[in-house]
Amino acid sequence: RKEVEQDPGPFNVPEGATVAFNCTYSNSASQSFFWYRQDCRKEPKLLMSVYSSGNEDGRFTAQLNRASQYISLLIRDSKLSDSATYLCVVNERGSGTYKYIFGTGTRLKVLA
Amino acid sequence: DVKVTQSSRYLVKRTGEKVFLECVQDMDHENMFWYRQDPGLGLRLIYFSYDVKMKEKGDIPEGYSVSREKKERFSLILESASTNQTSMYLCASSLKGRYEKLFFGSGTQLSVL
Question: A13 burial class (0-12, 13-18, 19+ CB within 10 angstroms)?
Answer without folding.
Answer: middle
